[in-house]
Fold these 2 entries.
Entry 1:
Amino acid sequence: MGTEDKSSGLVQGTLYMLILKTLTLEPMHGYGIGVRLEQISKGVFQVNGGSLFPALRRLERDGLIAGEWLVTENNRRAKYYKLTTQGRAKLKRETRNWEVQTDAIASVLKASLGEL
Amino acid sequence: MAPISRLTAGLRRLLRRARVEQEMDDELREFLEASIERKTHAGMTREAAIRAARLELGSAEAVKDQIRDIGWESVVEPVIQDVRYAFRSLRKAPGLTAVTVATLALGIGANTAIFHLVDAVRLRPLPVDHPEQLVEIRMANPGRGRTGTFAGRRPLFTNALWEELHGRQQAFAGVVAWGAYPVNLSNRGEAQFAQGLWVSGDFFSVLGVTPHLGRLLASSDDRPGCGSPAAVLGYDFWRRQYGGDGTVIGKSLLLDGHPFEIVGVAPRRFTGLEVGRAFDVATPICAERILNPEQGALNDRAWWWLTVLGRLAPGWSVDRASNHLAAISPGIFQTTVAPGLPPDVAQAYVGSTLKAFPASTGVSGTVREDYETPLWVLLVVAGAVLIIASANIATLLLARATTREREIAVRLALGASRGRLIRQLLVESALLAVAGAVAGLFLSQTLSEGLVGLLRTSGFQFFGVTFNLDPNWRVLLFGTAVTLVTCVLFGVAPALLSTRASNGTLLRATARTRTDDRRPGRARGGLVVAQVALSLALVVTALLFARTLHNLTTVQSGFDLDGVTMAVVDYQRANVPAQSRLDFQSRLLDALRAAPGVQSAATVRFVPLTGESWIQNVVIDGVQHQKKIGFNRVSPAFFQTMGTPLVAGRDFTPTDTVDSRRVAIVNESFARTLVGGRNPIGSTFQMSAAPGATPPTFEVIGVVRDTKYTGLREPFEPIAFLPTTQERRPLEYVNTVLRASGGVTTRTLTDAVSRVEPRAVVLVQSFRAQVADSLVRERLVAMLSGFFGAVAALLAMLGLYGVVSYGVTQRTREIGIRTALGAAPSAVLALVLRQSLLLTAIGVALGVGAAGLGTRYFEAMLFGLEPLDPATFMAVPCGFALLSAVAAYVPARRATRVDPLIALRQE
């Protein structure tokens, strides 16, 4: 699955999780998702179109998000993505996994010399 | 859920391609717009914002490609494009496409049709419940113990043996017995025969066959005495005879003049358990007594007429069932031994064992034995023709590839991968193959029905062969496999060869002037060699079969068959008492002789060349002769009627009666056996008899020229003819032979018989037709292999012509230079012919080798010649050399007319 986003050094697979997370609040279009990610991560993650669109397509294919053409606030048509029930469940699972993993990694990294 | 959304999204992309692409464009454009808008809001000028946004996104096409690569359809899509492209390019060459598809359709159709027959003869499981559980039960090694009278096509059981087995066995969920017999439906006048089947009461229920109409026979139908017997009609017979009338149930049916009640119709697919034969009427075994009150088979322990199949009980294997059968065999054989057998024969009988043999595909009387090998041979022949045809198609495609060389070179130069181009060419071949296969599979149904039609004989319906030709998965699988192989054969070589050249050389060179690269030429040469070799082997095969048929039709049978008609008269319904039957028969003969057009008439017990026989041991000078002798019983004037010359002594006369001394006429072979070179007239021999009985002694009164006995293929064997007039127990039917050189109609003969006895039934057939019927298999094989051989030779010669022609075109410039430098036309001719002669020589050598190795596999099918028949093996290669010289000469002539000026100016 997936290509790693080289520019921001995202761990493979995490981009999907982040996209799902940004969509929990409200449906958004592609550019909005990118901007929101950048804002929330305080500029750490800059996701360009070349990574974003394949990721969106894949999530859509797997039935985790659903796209819908709507009119934007500037009166243009854009494809808005929203989280599906499956997507919500998936996000929950992935978040739990992620926490378990980061905790484990953190405790390994924080281990004292004696523990090693 | 996810797989479904993936599937639908993929399909949407494949089917609504434009729409999906449009949405992708829209989304990217919107992304860009939003990006620009945000950047101008942040204070950039619009131009700078556009540039920055574009930079951020990267190449829009690359992004789109990345998106397109997601999903399974990205693998399928290029193939679909290839198919579209292939369609377009094939439509641009309609001639080539039509020829190729037609060739493939015929080739694949012929192969599948023959395989369909092989399937019907050998592979198709019986259309019953769980055919894999069925085993045939028969004696493990029937030797001297199995003696007596044999009736039907697979006489392996006597009724006593069957009843004992039925009562004692425990290995089977059920056992069934049946026997086939010809039965006459007509009440008077001309006989109408149908295929009757004696079946045991639980025959249908054990097999799990359900009725199409009414009910099938049950155990209650097959009981001693039989009451008023029931009959079940075969489906085809019901359609043919009753027009599929649903009200037939309960009606009465006359079998040999005895009424049977029709209780049901069998399902369409179930035609019995014997390969290649279908029953018309099934009747319970107990009813045999009704049809044959005099010579009943039910109580005759030396009358073999039944075949037995068992359904293995759950958990039983064939071996376990065989062990069980071996264990119960002594008891079964002990209680069923026939009375009056010589002690050694009785001992052999009692010591026999029964054994189980797998029978899921049914058993065969004669059809499987007769047709399996010929069908496999024909399948190999048809397969070889398809290979040759594929080679021709490959040559055609190569020629086309040559004209497309520049197109391919350009595409290679522009960066198309070789794999991509090969795939595309292969898709083109596959498309041709699929079109050919679909047409071929439809054609094969007609062809296989036509093949069965060729097997149909003019004679008794009883002897007709029928096959279930419903399409099935094995046939489809075979057709598909053949198509795949063909596709690889004709598709791969051109695809590989035409994409092999490196880009530079091809772009620079034009097809016309190239003389350096001979690779495609070499490939064509190889194909032609293979074609010549294969087709030569086929022609040799075809010629061997054709000569076999010729030998059989011209072989001396000892009879003058033209103008001989046979008529079987069944007068059972006239109730003629045994002592008056000889008298009745002679009145019948007088009536037939008096019929308009008839010159002479006689009776004969076993009609020659029909396979019927009466073989017995004889005692000469008190010593039993080691070889059995063929016997027959004929009336006066038989030899005159059949055109067999009497070489010594006299013919039978009416004065040879039951009360006078017993006489015999022998053929020359028997005369030699009997007395060596001396005059045999007046010498005697004895017919061996059961112990205790006095062996009858016969005095030889005449010698006739040798004749064939049971069939045309056998050599002349010793035969003894006894007079009908001395027959002690005449039957209630009689075979007559008539000579009417101007021909005689069935109507004339039935009228003549009716005047003597209106209740008699007559069956008439010309002797020639009877003999022709016995050669139906040889005729089929000779016809088909001859046709395939001719097609193969034609294709090979076309191939040779093509390759020489191509060579001349390729070398126009070279030939032009040679001519300009002073080469004589004869030198140019030799230059071109040398190539074709070399190809032919290699092909002929390989073909002769292949034929030499192959023909011995069907040695048994040949007659009157060896598998390595010198004449055939000389003539065919010579013929091929001549044909190929002609095929090569035409283009070679053209080469000598090359005008050096024109050839060189073309540069």
Entry 2:
Amino acid sequence: MFVLVVGGGKVGYYLTKELIESGHEVVLMEKELERARQIADEIGSVVIAHDGCEGKYLGEAGCNRADIVAAVTGDDEDNLVICQMAKHHFDVPRTIARVNNPKNEELFKHLGVDELISPTRMILGSIEQDIPVHELLHLAALGEGELELIEAHLQTGSPAIGKATQDLDIPEGCSLFAVIRDGIATPLRPETILREGDKVIAIGRQECQELLHDQLIGETVPAS
Amino acid sequence: MKTVIVGCGRVGAVLASSFDQAGHEVIILDLTSRAFDRLPSTFKGTALRGDGTDEDILRRAGAEDADVFIAMTEGDNRNVMAAQLAQEALGAKRVIAKINDPLRADAYADLGIAALCRTNLMADAVHAYLDMPVSGRKGILEPTGSHPGGEHHEIVASSTNTVSAGSNVAPGASGAVPSGSQAVPAREV
């Protein structure tokens, strides 16, 4: 297997090292000469000291015969371009990109990157396992502070999904007044059917929040 | 027409000011607010500090209903990514990206982005000035294809989207600050 790794940071360095140890053919591209030399001193002459975003150098590195191109620089835009050039210009069968901003994942997929690795997303996932994130979000305190503006994000498991607002058992002193769906805010009417992904905006007294939580988010599951 | 420009360098600033003077709505973005010093004091458009490769920021800049979107930062890849975000994710109508690497410029023209290639542009300008034969490579490469999206695909050549874009430019709704999607920013702190 011939793997072309672009980006000689920590990830690129250890990736290259591991791949060589497991017997693959590897070329690493690192545009900073000093860093490239340093890596070459340690792991041998598999380093090309050129910018892997530049079409010319990708070609010289043998991109057209690579089985896999892994773009692991610290910049999302560079990783995207490396993968797109590899895919569309050099017909590489499999491209892998490191994605730092989780919001870029969808775009990268849409633009044809085969596999995305998002450290941010992984760490986030790991944190969310421990902390219940399906909570009511407190947006602001109103009046003397006894009323609060609250947002509830309806996710899988919410008992409110598929129900009309009027069929919910909303505690007294609490009012649901708007829903944000696909980025658009609309007033919540009694007959509005709630959907997964909706963000419901409510105003309520502090003491009714537990009930509101059960209605919109679901019973609290103790974190495992 | 509504124009969003990413990157307030020399060219970005000149474009912003000339579009503005011609009566168009201009929103210009840059990472640093100092860059906006390049704009003339008469500039009536909007200068917004932010990263043009961040979808949220492009949305805030109104790229969704932009008639023209121009990515003019000093990095080819930043321009490519900003342009693709505008075109593929946000639906801006005509998208131009400055891509100085001729190879990348070619590749992205194939993928549906008009590529402005300074390398070609300047090389030919010098040749022409010295009465030497020019390469004939274009300074702006017209989009010749469209992005196929999805996973395994081939580039589909379509001649349609090179010409049509200009015809449906609607000057209406100018000045309208972004639509419903703006109901949320309070939370993003």
